Structure formats: C-alpha cells, structure tokens
Amino acid sequence: MKHALLFSAMLFGTIGAAHADDPLSTWNNTSSKQAIEQWVQNATNKDRSTFIPPEKRYVVFDNDGTLWPEAPLTFQLQFAVDEVKRLAPEHPEWKNDPVVSAVLNDDLKTVVASGEKGLIQLLELTHSNITTEEFNQRVSNWVDSHRDNRFGCRYDQMSYQPMRQLLDYLRENGFKTWIVSGGGIDFMRVVAEKMYGIPPEQVIGSFSLSEFSLTDNGTQLRKTMKGAFNDDAAAKPVAIHLFMGQRPVAAFGNSDGDLAMMQYTASNPDYKTFGLLVHHTDAEREYAYDSHPPASGKLVEGLSLAKEKGWAIVDMKHDWKTVFDPALCK
After folding, report:
1. How far is CA 296 from the centre of its chain?
2. Helical (H) or strand (E) element with 205
3. Could you give the CA distance from residue 83 to residue 58 in angstroms, rounded to a whole number?
C-alpha cells in the first residue's frame, strides 16, 4: 500500500509538473496552438526582427463567443430577460408590449426575431434610469443567483478554459490584454477581472451616457440610453482608438462582427501581428454554428478571409482538450 501511494504521488507529481511546463495545457498540439506559441516567441525575442517592445504589446479579445458562450442567447441578453421577469410585477403596463410579452412567455424566438430594436427596448427597461452602483449590484446578484439552463453552471464559471489560459500566457510574456466587445461595457466590467484577470479600465464595449448629479449623500451617476454607442463591426476600431490610443498587435474574435477589429490590427505598419478566430464546431461540449447562429455570432466572411490573411482558425472540437474548466463548471 505504501509503495502504491508513493507511486501515485510520483505519477501525479509528474503530471502536475508537465502541466506547469505547458501554459496552454488545455490546447491540443495542433497548428493553432503552434501558431500562437511561435508568434509569442518571435514577438518577445529581442534578437529577432519580429520583436515587439513591451509597451506596444496590446492585444484585443472579443468577449461573446470568444471568451464565453453567446448561445442560445448572449449572457447580457439573458440577464435582461431575467430582469424583465423579476421587475414585471412592479410594471403591469409592460405586459401589453409584444417583446416583453414574449419574454414573459419564454418565447425566445420572438425575442431574437425582434432584432436590435427589441434588444434596445429590453436594455432601456433593465439598464437605464438607475445609478451605476445599483446596476452593478443587479448584475452581481444575477450572477450569484442564476445558472445556465443547459450546463447548470453559474455564468461567471463559463469562460472558455483554453482562452483563459491564453490570456494568462500572453500576460506572462508582457502583453496587455483588452476586451473589445459588442457587449455592454458596464455589464462586462462587473465580472471581467474575476473571470479573465482583465481590470475594468481594459474593458471596451457598447455604452450610453450617464448623467452626473449631486445628492444629499454626495454624487451619483445615473444610467440613461442617451448617446448610445454600439461597439460592433466597424465601430470596434473606432473604440480601440478612443480608449486605447494605439493599434493592437494581436486580435482574437469569433464572428464577422470582429473582422474590422482584426483588419485594423493586421494593418499595423510597425509589427508582425497575429489574428485568431474561434470556430464553434463542438455541439456536444458547447455549440456548433457559423453561418446560422442561434442568436448572434455569424461567421462566414471571416472563414475565407482568415485563409487570405493567415489568421489562425480554432476548431473547438479538435483544438481544445476542454471547453469549460471542470473544476468550476461541473
């Protein structure tokens, strides 16, 4: 028995050491992983012409579908749906609205079919006319109390483990990681640091203007829908310039909505850049889609453009050993 325990300790110690030696241990050794490692080695080796100074190592990641799932609904839309249900008893007049009625009847097809107009309507009901502190608390409460219907995990436990390792790997090599997403900037900032190690000031997303006022207790910012900026497609490079002030050297996305950001990055005149698209091909461990996504994340043009530009395409089914961290999402 003693010898068996000793052997087990040696075995698991060896496995642990191997895991420590491979910062991308949840990636299979395919061309995607090799491309990432080769680019990082080239970018961080001072003796190579491809060296990128640490102060220029800004890399950008889309969020929905790139760092966490966007099917069957994006997490933020699911939050809005759940908030409408929670708040509806206080607003009986809402039930006369077709989009709200669809939410209350769990008719998600109608909700999705309502498009941007319907989404804005739900956001106005659940994201505006409250203070920024109250909104942050609502998101925190939702994260603490709700779980994904299919996987049974809390939403803040559902980041893609291989992408989380990639974020850590890049930071360990001197890169500054940013989120650039169509998701709401305030929504993502509540969870981004805990989930990804990305602080609030490095999160860029869709936003609207808040209103400042003095109160008896000090000051407050109140959320509105004024000046709404949808950080998607061609708006992403605009937001990168506004918030970052320099062109990234690598971009990671999963849909045609990320192409402008990736093209903007690839056009960096000073450095050899890197691009990667996550292709959802794993219906068993996550979802499989490209041209016909459940709600968002259409990927058609990107698949052909990636070949032309030399961007890596991650096949989730074959390139990733795991999708979600089994220690978190059981």
Report:
1. 13
2. strand 203-206
3. 35
Q: How far is CA 194 from CA 159, 188, 191, in A?
A: 11, 11, 6
DSSP per residue, 212-260? EEEETTEEEEEE-STT-B--STTHHHHHHHHHT-S--SEEEESSGGGHH
How far apart are alpha carbons 79 and 112 in whole angstroms?
14
Is residue 19 very low, low, confident or very high in pLDDT (cuts 50, 70, 90)? Answer: low
- Judge whether 1 and 9 are in contact, CB under 8 Å: no
What tokens were used for 41?
Answer: 């080695």
Range of the domain at 119: 75-145
**DSSP letter assigned to residue 324:** B
- Pairing mode, if any, of strands 274-281 and 288-289? antiparallel
> Measured between alpha carbons, how far is 83 from 67 in angstroms, rounded to an integer?
23
Asked if residues 58 and 178 have their Cβ atoms less than 8 Å apart, the reply is: yes
Distance in angstroms (rounded) separating the CA atoms of residues 108 and 37: 41
In a domain, 329, yes or no: no
Q: What is the pTM of this model?
A: 0.93
Q: Sort 322 into a burial class: Cβ within 10 Å, 0-12 / 13-18 / 19+.
A: middle
Tokens of 203: 């999160």
Reported as a single tens digit per residue, the pLDDT across 196-220 is 999 999 999 999 999 999 999 999 9
Shared domain for 64 and 210, answered yes or no, is yes
Same domain, 57 and 109: no
Q: What are phi and psi of 285, to 5 degrees?
A: -90, -15
**DSSP labels, 284-320:** TTS-EESSS-SSS---SHHHHHHHHHT-EEEEHHHHB
